[in-house]
Write a structure and sequence with these properties.
The chain has helices at about 20-25, 35-45, 50-60, 65-90, 95-105, 170-180, 200-205, 215-230, 235-270, 270-290, 295-300, 310-325, 335-345, 350-355, 360; strands at about 10, 15, 115-130, 135-150, 155-165, 190-195, 210-215. It is of the alpha/beta class and about 375 residues long. The chain folds into 2 domains: about 90-215 and about 310-360, no CATH class; about 220-300, no CATH class. It has a 5-stranded mixed β-sheet, with helices on both faces. Strands 1-2 form a two-stranded antiparallel ribbon. Helix 4 (about 65-90) packs across helix 6, helix 4 (about 65-90) packs across helix 13 (about 335-345) and helix 6 (about 170-180) packs across helix 7.
């Protein structure tokens, strides 16, 4: 359908305006809200080239890369600004009751008895280059991802997600606000599970210090396997040693594994073969010792707690891995943030509600 409308040009700044667009509530630009909403939803699943084929097949419409990129950055940028506006509003309030009341003024998402919170970082390729000898290599940046998840009864799992390129303080506050909306303050138990990364620890200590903290089982297992491969060049021998360590973790938690590693180090210290093994054992011991308080897997399993961050890993793949990573994909700062914000709206099942806030018009 073609709509003919009058166009006027300002003699002062040279800009054009279409009065009928305001009457019909049309956004500025080439694409209607109806088509933008559907095109961007597809864009969260596939690259622009594949998307253009689908749009032509499904709607007999052709949109260029530049048009799709502008749409993505405008609408996704609004979604990220909305999230950051909540964070800045909370930072302006005193910590404690004032911040809690501000978040609780919004409609609650859930009221689970046990709530899990997790965060992690994912590297993605950018458009930027860094000189390295006679070559320019692609610069990778980290997207922070967070998820809040819970179980209904003994079956269905639910989660809400977010992503950010902000510092840990602002990211952590955004994750805290999401957890509050998901019922953290009313839950009987809160669990924070993550890897041993420094900024994840900062988020846990600042915003979730009253919850049970767990070092992700699979992340610790990766460190065990790294040490095993350094100790034993033979894969089967390395596998046997790693399995033994994991068995000790299950039966005696982190403290049992630490004692085993220390005994192994003492027994190898006097041999020539032992001198080669010491760096591997020392590295694993140095990683495990300061994290002992969050490796009580015997207790966690007895309480029926999740000890692996599988839902966090899947969230990272959904928010970043599937769309931002891949052969030939390179992102600007604004593009990566906008796309991950759009994906979060889809994963959180808030896509329609977000579009009801008129993001295209607000982006103008």
């Amino acid at each position: 359908m073609t709509v003919r409308r009058a166009r006027f040009r300002c003699t002062v700044n040279g800009r054009y305006c279409f009065p009928l667009d305001d009457v019909l509530d049309l956004p500025p630009g080439e694409v209607t809200v109806y088509l933008s909403k559907r095109a961007l939803r597809l864009a969260t699943h596939m690259g622009f080239s594949e998307l253009q084929d689908e749009l032509h097949y499904q709607h007999d419409v052709n949109l260029s890369d530049s048009v799709l990129n502008r749409l993505m950055q405008r609408v996704g940028g609004v979604g990220d600004r909305d999230r950051r506006a909540v964070v800045e509003a909370l930072r302006a309030l005193p910590e404690g009751v004032a911040q809690e009341e501000h978040v609780l003024a919004q409609a609650p998402i859930a009221r689970p008895k046990r709530l899990y919170i997790s965060c992690d970082g994912v590297m993605y390729p950018t458009r930027y280059r860094q000189a390295e000898g006679d070559r320019n290599r692609i610069v990778y940046q980290e997207m922070k991802c967070g998820t809040v998840f819970w179980q209904e009864g003994n079956a269905t799992w639910h989660k809400r997600v977010l992503s950010s390129r902000e510092d840990p303080e602002r990211f952590g506050l955004s994750l805290w606000a999401l957890a509050v909306r998901c019922g953290m303050l009313q839950a009987d138990e809160t669990v924070f599970i993550s890897d041993g990364g420094g900024w994840c620890d900062t988020v846990a200590r600042r915003y979730f210090r009253d919850g049970t903290r767990i070092l992700d089982w699979y992340h610790l297992s990766e460190h065990v396997w790294e040490a095993a491969r350094l100790l034993y060049p033979d894969e089967s021998a390395a596998g046997g040693w790693a399995s033994r360590c994991q068995g000790i973790l299950r039966e005696s938690s982190g403290i049992g594994l630490l004692r085993y590693l220390e005994r192994s180090r003492c027994s190898r210290g006097g041999s020539s073969a032992g001198s080669k093994a010491l760096p591997a054992l020392d590295g694993l011991i140095a990683y495990l010792r300061p994290r002992l308080p969050i490796t009580d897997y015997v207790e966690y399993r007895a309480r029926g707690l999740v000890i692996g961050s599988g839902l966090m890993e899947s969230t990272c793949k959904q928010l970043v891995g599937k769309r931002l990573k891949g052969c030939g994909r390179q992102w600007s700062e604004g593009g990566a943030v906008a796309m991950s914000a759009l994906i979060a709206q889809r994963l959180n099942r808030t896509w329609d509600a977000f579009w009801e806030t008129r993001p295209l018009q607000r982006a103008a």
